[in-house]
Amino acid sequence: MSGGFLKIKARLFIKSKDIFLHTIGKAKPGSLLQSTIRIFAQTFVGPVPYVIKLDINTECNINCKMCYSSKEDIEVPFEKIKKLLDQVKGMRMRLDIMGGEPLLHKNIVSIVAYAKKTAGFKEVIIYTNGTVADKMLAEELKMAGVDKIMVNLSSSDKKTHDAFTRNPGFFDKTLAGIKNFKAAEIETFAFVVLHNKNIGEYEKIRDFAVEKLKIKPVFFQYIPQMINDKLSVDKEKWALVKHKVLYEDSPSHGKYIEKVITFCGTECLGGYYSVSVKVNGDMTPCPFINDIVMGNVYKENFWDVFAKRNKSKSFTEFTKLPDACIPCSYKKLCGGGCKAGNKALFGSYRQKDCRCLGQYNDKVSKETMHDRMPTYF
Q1: Domains of the chain, start order
Q2: Angle at the Cα of 123 (from 35 to 155), degrees rounded to 5?
Q3: What is the pTM of this model?
Q4: Which of 142, 173, 214, 360 could form a disulfide bond with 184, CB atoms 3.0-4.6 angstroms apart?
């Protein structure tokens, strides 16, 4: 498939994706209607890129224990970013601006404005630690058109948060940044990565975000980065928290995920409907993976890179269903779960999600789906 044809197909899909998701969400799991929609979507429509996770720098003012970003300070020139955004102009995609600490990029406001007002992104989201967000910057980002801000929060406790970020006083700076984003009327979230050191604080962090900060918390699983990673979460503990998040605290998000994974046939959207672009232009499946390169968007056209991604042997190997998952009744929904940490843990991506409690043999059900899925997004 050529990059040009893929772009046309992507435009049609992005316009109609809400209809697909609504219809498939109404259908009974395993029903003929649901199967027909999924097969049609996966065979004739997808995969098409909808989310671009763009690293605009590697520079950061803190040194979090869980950070996977490069230690070398690199800033992608604004002109180079504009050329990339021009290639997806008018597609109404979602842009996640990442780093490093993206607010340290000298052109961050211009990047947001260009993405929203020139390239026509439907949604622009910034992932930040919030510590450099003064009132003026928050107001400028609002004027530029940013839709959402995801602020990293490691704990509801000042001492614990600062110890994890290795910067005394940064808890207060993060809260000040959140206050400034809210004052500028930007939709703001607490982005909380749950790991072995804070998963026991789940309810405290949730309540702190909702009651004290007056913002919604978004919880994400920690991605292991080495064998015997001390931050890795016990999978039984993770399963309990995941149940609370998707069934009790954020059931609407649980319903959305249910629709997406049924439509896509996998929990991992990396390389299917979402791609990551590193500071050097390498396209990879997700921000946590550097060694599966599908091409370089600063050297080639974005659409051509995505269209030929299956020529990358490392990517096709990555997408294969792990052998351990073949007997599982949830394999067509889970697809092996999140494999991003597998290389570090097992030496290969061809393993099932390290948080999986299966395999399962029961009939697929909406009522138990999220308890069977090892992860979520």
Answers
A1: 49-222 (3.20.20.70)
A2: 95
A3: 0.90
A4: 142
